[in-house]
Amino acid sequence: MTTVKFSTMQDRKPIKVNVDGEDICLTRVGDEV
Hints:
Layout: E1 15-19, E2 22-26
Antiparallel strand pairs: 1-2
């Protein structure tokens, strides 16, 4: 489990991150993937 947090409230739009070789889209601040 990886918790990704964003420092600014502006980052509410979907953000694509790479976790363990998988592309995961985050839509909320502090989503757990």
